[in-house]
Structure formats: structure tokens, C-alpha cells
Structure prediction request, 963 residues.
Amino acid sequence: MGRKGLDYEDLNENVKKVQYAVRGELYLRASELQKEGKRIIFTNVGNPHALGQKPLTFPRQVVALCQAPFLLDDPNVGLIFPADAIARAKHYLAMAPGGLGAYSDSRGIPGVRKEVAEFIRRRDGYPSDPELIYLTDGASKGVMQMLNAIIRNGRDGILVPVPQYPLYSAAISLFGGSLVPYYLDEEANWGLDLVNTRQSVAAARSNGITVRAMVIINPGNPTGQCLSEANLREILNFCYQENLVLLADEVYQQNVYQDERPFISARKVLFDMGGPISREVQLISFHTVSKGYWGECGQRGGYFEMTNIPPKTVDEIYKVASIALSPNVPGQIFMGLMMNPPKPGDISYLKFATESKSILDSLRRRAQIMTDGFNSCRNVVCNFTEGAMYSFPQIRLPQRAMDTARSAGKEPDVFYCLKLLEATGISTVPGSGFGQKEGVFHLRTTILPAEEDMPAIMSSFKKFNDSFMEQYQDYSKL
Amino acid sequence: MASTVAVENLNPKVLKCEYAVRGEIVIHAQRLQQQLQTQPGSLPFDEILYCNIGNPQSLGQQPVTFFREVLALCDHPYLLQRDEIKSLFSADSISRAKQILALIPGKATGAYSHSQGIKGLRDTIAAGITSRDGFPANADDIFLTDGASPGVHLMMQLLIRNEKDGILVPIPQYPLYSASIALHGGALVPYYLNESTGWGLEISDVKKQLEDARSKGIDVRALVVINPGNPTGQVLAEENQYDIVKFCKNEGLVLLADEVYQENIYVDNKKFHSFKKIVRSLGYGEEDLPLVSYQSVSKGYYGECGKRGGYMEITGFSAPVREQIYKIASVNLCSNISGQILASLIMNPPKAGDESYASYKAEKDGIIASLTRRAKVRRSLEDAFNKLDGITCNEAEGAMYLFPQLSLPQKAIEAAKVANKAPDAFYALCLLESTGIVVVPGSGFGQVPGTWHFRCTILPQEEKIPAIISRFKVFHEAFMVEYHE
Prediction:
């Protein structure tokens, strides 16, 4: 009979539709070049430790002790671990019967979820219920679980900001839903444009789409903008009027580089608003240990918090979580530590605070260095990185560059980014990977390269860019 | 204002899927456990005994020391700069940690890795597979995942286009498969294992089920085999495995080989042979048969469930298909690094001559021997079940479970109906409420219609087994008397 096992043609179409540029064409090309011996600076993904940021000491001490509890029985342990790390390790081991090697509750260790609830209460001033906080192997898994629960078919639409972090578009493709874009306003520092958003929703509805949810990324990725309290109120009112679940991706809440708009959680604003809206708008909030000043991407630690979700729905979400058995326990401990860090007076506090401040201050400086660096380049305009970890400059490509790109079968920004990679080793992600207005091109890079390397990187970029622009100059404009 | 996300408008596939291992009975058990804390003495037992889930370390099994030494050093690499560690860690764990860190770019264990997992660790795993099977394995074929389960979901996602795509699944099965197929909107095509022949797999039965499904318009895409079996514990005979491989090749099926219990075999007359080895022994190469082999750090003698470490080895897929697999893996960026390191350790444990070998071997042998005793010896659970009227229990050749069959009296079946429960779920609930013992009803795994079973792990500590047996006996005999015809 000899029927062929599995051909490309026979794959799930939704899988084929998925795109995830963050580890797509540019990254694969960069990896190839790296194998050939070229020095590559990977700025394609928010991966701080890969670019030299050091892990915070205290969490690593605690998790190492939890990993090898026999150390706690050794009389010499105090020689290399501070007493508060030892105490904290015992605290987490007491919460996790069976230690790091046992499946925990499918929602995560109850004691850690209490720590998360406590953090939220301190941050927002409103109590939080640990029963409605689920730990996940990274925030992405939580996002996927939620979107999978919401999307029934191709007529279910999810409002997603453009530009967006392409986990959202990928997940929507994978689950067979409809992405309903709302464009952020580049001229207004990537500000929210609710008029445009309403138009998007109306257009989707007239095409038979039921818009079910709205995603906000605050601070934004790739755009970095921080939503104001007024913005959040507008959004919450909008969700209330339009009957949308709000999915608030708040993973960059610790990465804020300006003082005018500090981070405020969507939940806090919701409760501040009071009244029926505060009891009825359904909200899922996401957080992670991968970003902030922790940058512990490799641990895969995250959570989502549910607000105003009906109990039967929570049961279904619990059921799906239980199929995966439990999130990884070390990652859960990292989350507990992030939610409940050393306090003033603790032995490790000074070191912890110094390490944290140093990282945050440096990120703030690098955000500025990069923005200024891009703005000093020909045909490049860059909004300030108010938050998160990225810079998203607009590259105004001359017509000849766009034509050359297209005849090479490439999107103009992909073409530019490939040339940038080949000339400088800087590996970025083309703006088309995130979504952008038609005919307007960008690239995303991170602000994560070491501060001492920044000047060289920016000057390398400028050299490439300015000569690229020279090469493809529109002579008719001279 | 209508609630936008309510059960009525959730994804119906989410509503449809079920996972009994942590389902209703377990949730009830957790409530009872809380009750024991707040109102001690209010129940006819002092503690809840969780025999529902293969979670060895939650029931006192100890982790392998060498693995934890290496992981701790990788978690906090700064330790390697301190002389004091020489008195705290074995020398070979220190050198292994250094060797592993050298494989990680920048020694950054907190960075996202390559989406298939750190290359050097995949090389180690490939070498381990090669050494196990005698046939080469390739690092590029390996995808490290957060436990084996995400790899199963990935393949179901890839293979299932619509409700007419079917996946052949053994009955009884580990309900990840039925749940995953339901979540991805496919059709589960059951093939029944034969209880009277120790849960044997007959290819002629599988073929019949395949043809039956096809005649109903189902496009059957893959065959799942769990070896050693869960919940059934049988280890496939080599001849059987050859038949299965040839069958898949002839019928154009992807073979999904769940081999997570490969290091849990308790009988001398059976050995683990990986399907990869079988495929290659038949002379089949990359062009002949798409095969996905799953392994995990959760089982074996290491039992590191909470780490979420595992991998799938994919062979026999075309380049375009492999690209799609990579693409989907990349959306999640990567699996947790500590789990990746552990996966490499289990596939490359200490060898004879290493400083830690003796203690490692002692720990490993101790755990396997204990698992064997709990599964097999006279006073073991299996024996105890077989001695009771109305229960028969096949031998557990491998894995971590017993799956006894219950002959329930008609009155019990009627009482179950009144309680709106499957008869075995009713039995399991009564068992829980009288004894605190938590098992999973057979209906959660699938069974021949009209037969009833429950799955019980062999994991409670050895000292607790006599008490479990006696409590179970008291309950069962009372139950059979109560529902006597």
C-alpha cells in the first residue's frame, strides 16, 4: 500500500498560518552566520541574561538550596549561603511537600499563590484571591490557555494592538480565531486611539465577527509606551460597553523609564472606578519572572490572575491546567521570590537592592542612549522607549530600496534587517513581524546589550544605515 | 450585561475534554483533606492517601543526589568559585556542572535557549539514545519540552485538521491522549488491549479498528503506543513491536511512542526496546516511517515530576514538516533550562569509575527494587487485590500502576446510576469517603464497555502499604455485602 506518512500538505492549516518572527527568518539567518564564525549581537528577543545581565544573587541561592536540600543539613552551609537564603529555602520546601521533584497543585503551590496575592494587594491596595491566581510555565502558556478557552471558531475575534508581540497573532492563528487590529498612534508616542479601535470593532462586526476580547500590553511590546490612568479607564469603559474580556499583558510592569506615567495595573483602575463596572468587566492579568530586572527567562515562571470570571469558567480553566499536571516548581519559587523579595533589615536586602537598582538604572540609561542613537541616523525616527525592553525605530526606506527588496522577493523591512545583519552582525526583528501601518517600516531591537557595548553598536548601526540610505537615495529628490 | 466569558460561550473543545487523573474524585479528596485539618476526627480516617497520580516524590521517594548536586550548582554557578563547595558537593558533580555550563552560551542558565533546547545538552541526549539503542541519534531530531506532555500536544496540533482526522489510541490509555485529541478537535479511534492476555496488543484488532474508522470517513493519521503501558503496565514483546512498526509503515501512520516509563520494568523476562531501535533494526530509515519518541524526567527511578523536563525525538519527517514543528516550538521560546539539564543527566548518568557512581547506583537500585517490591511481592497490592472477591488484577510488568478489574453487583451499578456517576466512579468515591484512599476510576482511561476498573499507583511508601491493603479490604468487603444481589 505504501501510503506516505506525513506530508506538508497534510498538516493542520492553522499551524501553517502561524508566524512568529521573533525566532523566524532573521534569527535563523543570524544563527547560520554565527555558525560560520561571524560575531552576532542577538537583539531579537527580550533575553537579558543572554546579553550579560547577571542573575540576582538571592533567588539563585534560595533555589539552589531547594534543589539540593541535603545542603541544609550540612553544618558548613552557613559558610556560603546567607542565613536569610537558608531560611527562605526552608520556607519554600515547607510549602512544597515532596520538594522540587513533585507535581504541585495544578494551579501552583498554594503558598506561592498567596505570596502573589499579597504582592498584588500591596501594589494595588485591593485584596486579591490566591484561588484565582494560576502559576504557569511562563506567561505565554497562560495567554495560550486563555485564548484557547475563548476562541470557538473563525468568527471569534480578538482585538490586538498593532504593533503587537506576535505571541498574540500566533496564538489566534493556531486556535483558528480572527485577529481584529487596533492601531497605536506612532505620532502620539504609540498612544491609544480609541476612535480607531471603535472603527476596527465596527468593521469586524460588519464582517460577521464576534469580538470577544481585547489585549493590551502595558508597558507595550514592541512599542514601550506606558498607558496613563485615563487610558486605562477609557479601555475599561470600552470593554464594559462592548462586552469584551480584557487581557492585560503586564509583564513589563517593572520596566518603566519615565516618571510621568508610572505603572498602574488594569485591576487597580478597575476597582478604583467602583460601581457595576468594577464587578462586571472580566479581566485576566499576566505577569512573569522573565522581564523586569530579574530577566529569568529560562526559568519559565509566570502567572495569570482572573477578575470577575464566573466560577464555572474558572472550573474549566482549572480542568485544562490540570491536563498539564503542574507548572515547574523551581519557576514557581522564582515567582514567589519576586513577589516577596528581601526586605529592608534582611541580611541580603542591601545586595539585592543594589543589584536591582543597578540593572534598572542601566536599562533607563540604555533606553535613552538607543532612542537618541536611532534619532541621529538618516531617515530614522524613533519614539522614546518609555518602558519594556525594546526600541522600535521607524525606518523611512527610499523607493529604490523598497523596489530592490520586492524584486528580491522580500518585504522592505526584512530586506533592510538582513542587510543590517550581514553588515554589522546586529540581529533584529523586522517590524512586519509585529504589524505596522501599510507602507511604514520598522525594526525591533532590544535595549539589552551591555551599556559599555552600546556606543559601538549604535555607531555600527549608524554607519550601516547612513550608507544604506546613501546607496538607495532617491535621486529625484536631490 | 451578559457575561462575555461564560461556560455557554467557551470553546466547546475545552468543555468536551476531560482529565480524570486530577478530576472530580481528586478535587473531592482535597476538600476532605482540608476538612481533616479544620475538623480533626470528623472522618473515618486520619489522612488522605493519594494513589491517583504518578508523583513519586510527593510520597517520599528521594531524588537522586548526584542530579540535584549538578542542578544546584547550575542554578547558582557562583558556587563554583568557592573552595568550600568541595566539602559539600561530590567532585564529579562539580565537574559535570562545569561541563554543562560550558555548553550554555555565556553560562547563562536564566536565558531563553534555542527553541529545541541547548545544543550541547541535545548532543548528550543523542549520545545517550545511541548508547541505549545501538543506532545513531541526532541532536537536530530532539526537542526538549516542559515535560513530555507539551510534545504530545504539539503533534496533535500538527496532525489534526478537523473532526475527521483520527488518532488510534490504546484503550485503556493515559487520558492526556483523549484530552489532547478533544482539545484539538480530532477523533479518537480506540484499539482495545486484551485484558485476558495481560493487556496484550493484537495487530489484527488494531487493523480492524483502523478499517472501521476509515469506512466511517475518518482519516486515521497516527497510532499511539504507550510502552510500558499506562494504566496497564504491560511491556510489549519485541515481536509485537515489529508488527506495530510494519503496520504503521504499511498504513501510512505516524507512530507516536510514549516511552516515559522505559526505566520502570519489574520483570526479568521483558526488556525495554525503544521503537526507534525497532524501526532501525528493520532497516527502515528516514524515508520510511515518521516516528515521535517521548521521554520524561518524571518517571523512571528519578521521578522528578515537578521539574517539567522531557523531550521528543522526531525521525522520518520531511524538512518542511520539521520546520513547522520548530516554528510551533519557537512560539513558546524554549522549555525551562533546569529541566533541560536534568533531561541530559538522566540520559547520561554517572558511569562505573565516576566518584558518584557507587552512591548513584545504590540509590537507583534501591528505588527500582522498592518499586518492584511494591508491585510484585506477596504482600503487595496486586496480590491483595487478587485475593478479594470481585476483583482481579493483572500483573504490573512496568510503569507505576495497578489497574484492577471490578465485578460490580447490579445493585451497585443501579446505585451509581441514581447518583449520576459511572459505576467505577461511584465505587472510587465510596472508597475515598470510607478510607481516604484516592484512586482514579477506570472510566477515566477507557475500558471495554460494561467492564469496570480503577487505577491505583504503587507509589505510597512501603510502610504504608499494609495499612492501605487492610483498609481497602475492609471497605471492599463491606461494599460487596452492602450491594449484594
Observations:
- The mean pLDDT of chain B is 94.
- Chain B touches chain A through 98 residues (CB under 8 Å).
- The longest helix of chain B spans residues 357-376.
